[in-house]
């Protein structure tokens, strides 16, 4: 594997930091009652979307999950429009009608976060099929957790992607829990690599708390999919720091596990690496920190200053307007 360029190593860290600070702020706003609905944070898991999306081009597509803020930010989302969507504001990616679990943007190549487990994978297969039929070299990436991994839709998608040799990258983001249930309680074969083998899909397992390891696996998998080699699966084992949803007290997790979460911190790991390689010092880290905190504060201000979605907005964007095409129908802007 080639060495990762210094600018990219820095960008990997910055993207993870952006996700972390955005989600910390989201957690605080939710606790203060400023965000409607449910919020699932991916704090601790930032290396997975960051490493995967760094290997993608703008035209490539992803499907995200109910824990999808990180996936969408890593694909290049504007934090202001993200925050506005979480706040139910008209300037959000879904005009305030989707919220945290249903962020969608054709412009970004985000074919939806999804509140339904196993629903994103057939969509990703559709995106892979469209790329193949159009003769495009677009790659379709789909994220899912181990809870979703036993859903029929995931298996049907893996089978069809393999049969049709579609450019789909399945990313199994294993954080140890499906809601309150530990992995070993609900999955008979815990290795997603073995399960992918059942469909003839080549697969690798990586340390999902190591952003550079995830990136390297992604570069290889994406190149294979892009060059007509068919689907691949990347299993990334990571760590969920917060509860399943904000407000979950995590009484089902052993105290030692909760106390040792920071030992797996993907940000600390990457920061230490950058410092050791002489790419960043304390001052550089502080500059990045200030920039990202400022960006998140601006996003919150943008959301707060935006108009609320109105009840009658529910009647908008239901049907595609004539001649708008799929992109016109799906991209909700005002
Ligand atoms: C089809 C379906 N069944 C059940 C649920 C309820 N549900 C929401 S999240 C979740 C667990 C998801 O676990 P996992 O896929 O590992 O993702 P994680 O929450 O760990 O990110 C469940 C069972 C759902 N949203 N959709």
Description of the structure:
The protein is an alpha/beta fold and 334 residues long. It contains 13 helices and seven strands. The strands form two sheets. The chain has a five-stranded parallel beta sheet with strand order 1-2-3-7-6, with helices on both faces. The protein has a two-stranded antiparallel sheet with strand order 4-5. The N and C termini lie far apart (45 Å). Helices cover 43% and strands 9% of the residues. Helix 1 packs antiparallel against helix 11, helix 1 (6-31) packs across helix 12 (282-305) and helix 4 crosses helix 12 (282-305). Residues 326-334 have low confidence and may be disordered. The longest helix is centred in the first third of the chain and has 26 residues, at 6-31. Helix 6 links the parallel strand 2 and strand 3 (168-174). It has a single domain, classed as Rossmann fold (3-Layer(aba) Sandwich), CATH 3.40.50.970. Residues 65-67, 115-118, 145-148, 175, 177-179, 244 line the site of thiamine diphosphate.
Strand order of the largest sheet: 1-2-3-7-6
Give the cofactors and ligands: thiamine diphosphate
- The geometry reads as globular
Radius of gyration in whole Å, from Cα?
Answer: 19 Å
Helix content, binned percent: 40-55%
| CATH superfamily (homologous) name | Thiamin diphosphate (ThDP)-binding fold, Pyr/PP domains
Number of strands: 7
């Amino acid at each position: 594997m080639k060495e990762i360029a210094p600018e990219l190593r820095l960008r990997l860290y910055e993207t993870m930091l952006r996700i972390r600070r955005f989600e910390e702020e989201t957690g605080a706003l939710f606790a203060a009652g400023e965000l409607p609905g449910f919020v699932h944070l991916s704090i601790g898991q930032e290396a997975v979307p960051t490493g995967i999306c760094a290997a993608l081009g703008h035209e490539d597509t992803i499907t995200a999950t109910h824990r999808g803020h990180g996936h969408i930010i890593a694909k290049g989302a504007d934090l202001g429009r993200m925050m506005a969507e979480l706040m139910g504001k008209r300037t959000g990616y879904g005009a305030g009608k989707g919220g945290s679990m249903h962020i969608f943007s054709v412009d970004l190549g985000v074919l939806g976060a999804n509140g339904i487990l196993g629903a994103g994978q057939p969509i990703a297969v559709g995106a892979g099929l469209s790329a193949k039929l159009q003769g495009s070299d677009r790659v379709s990436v789909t994220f899912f957790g181990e809870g979703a991994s036993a859903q029929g839709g995931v298996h049907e998608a893996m089978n069809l992607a393999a049969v049709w040799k579609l450019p789909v990258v399945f990313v199994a983001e294993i954080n140890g829990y499906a809601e309150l249930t530990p992995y070993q309680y609900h999955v008979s074969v815990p290795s997603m690599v073995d399960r992918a083998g059942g469909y003839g899909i080549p697969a690798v397992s990586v340390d999902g708390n190591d952003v550079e390891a995830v990136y390297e696996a992604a570069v290889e998998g994406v190149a294979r999919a892009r060059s007509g080699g068919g689907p691949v699966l990347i299993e990334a084992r990571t760590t969920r720091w917060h509860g399943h949803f904000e407000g979950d007290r995590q009484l089902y997790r052993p105290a030692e596990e909760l106390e040792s979460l920071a030992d797996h911190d993907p940000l600390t790991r990457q920061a230490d690496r950058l410092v050791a390689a002489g790419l960043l010092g304390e001052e550089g880290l502080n500059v990045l920190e200030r920039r990202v905190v400022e960006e998140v504060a601006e996003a919150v201000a943008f959301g707060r200053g935006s108009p609320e979605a109105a009840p009658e907005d529910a009647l908008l964007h239901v049907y595609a307007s004539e001649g708008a095409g799929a992109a016109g129908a799906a991209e909700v802007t005002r």
